[in-house]
Design goal:
The complex is a heterodimer of chains A (117) and B (113). Chain A has 117 residues and is an all-beta fold. Chain A has no helices and 11 strands. In chain B, the strands form 2 sheets. In chain B, strands 1, 2, 4, 5, 9, 10 and 11 form a 7-stranded mixed β-sheet that branches. Chain B has a 4-stranded antiparallel β-sheet with strand order 3-8-7-6, with no helix packed on it. Classes of the chains: A mainly beta (117), B mainly beta (113).
């Protein structure tokens, strides 16, 4: 069964709205979670690494003030797209790694399709 | 056959045939590799992984081969079924600084009944 849950699965909202996406690890604690963005027929691009109890690490070119990440507990990370515009429309996917050691697979949520009108 | 589209390479096979999906990675320092399957509208699903100290690993109906000399990874699916139709991504685990996964461009597999 699923080990990472993501909510909501789909959001449609007006331009200028802020949207929050939740990512939960279901049966394990995750000190690190990851947020990806995927455009149609393209690969996953890492946006940021979410660290429990500390600031997220953003990839080059990703605006940290635009994509706010909060990892307040060992089972929950949130991504808030602030003042969303049509160009922010995309498929956002989170992942978590079950074990803190390296060389373990990341497990993914089922994604959130964000559509900004 | 296999073709390269504008964004996503595609592979079409007949049900029951074996499928081979290829991936080239770029960083010789990568030490861990994963294959994921992504169905339409869903997140990637873990299939199989392999560490750099191995050159072959087998799972149920799937085999991953790693050739570090030419930085090439392949996924073999035996007796391909319609339920195997999806996009398949390889991912390499890059070391150094913050450890992270880097995904390949993906291959769309279509299984014809």
């Amino acid at each position: 069964g699923a080990v990472v849950s993501q909510h909501p699965s789909r959001v449609i909202c007006k331009s200028g709205t802020s949207v929050k996406i939740e990512c939960r690890s279901l049966d394990f604690q995750a000190t690190t979670m990851f947020w990806y963005r995927q455009f149609p027929k393209q690969s996953l691009m890492l946006m940021a690494t979410s660290n429990e109890g500390s600031k997220a690490t953003y990839e080059q070119g990703v605006e940290k003030d635009k994509f706010l990440i909060n990892h307040a507990s060992l089972t929950l990370s949130t991504l808030t797209v602030t003042s969303a515009h049509p160009e922010d429309s995309s498929f956002y996917i989170c992942s978590a790694r079950r074990d803190r050691t390296s060389n373990q697979p990341q497990h993914f949520g089922d994604g959130t399709r964000l559509s900004i009108l | 056959g296999e073709s390269v589209g504008l964004h996503l390479p595609t592979l079409s096979v007949q049900e029951g045939d074996n499928s081979i999906i290829n991936c080239a990675y770029s960083n010789s320092a990568s030490d861990y590799f994963i294959w994921y399957k992504q169905e339409s509208g869903k997140g990637p699903q873990f299939i199989i992984d392999i560490r750099s100290n191995m050159d072959k690993r087998q799972g149920q109906r799937v085999t991953v081969l790693l050739n570090k000399t030419v930085k090439h990874l392949s996924l073999q699916i035996a007796a391909t079924q319609p339920g195997d139709s999806a996009v398949y991504f390889c991912a390499e685990n890059r070391q150094g600084g913050s450890e992270k996964l880097v995904f390949g461009k993906g291959t769309k597999l279509t299984v014809n009944p």
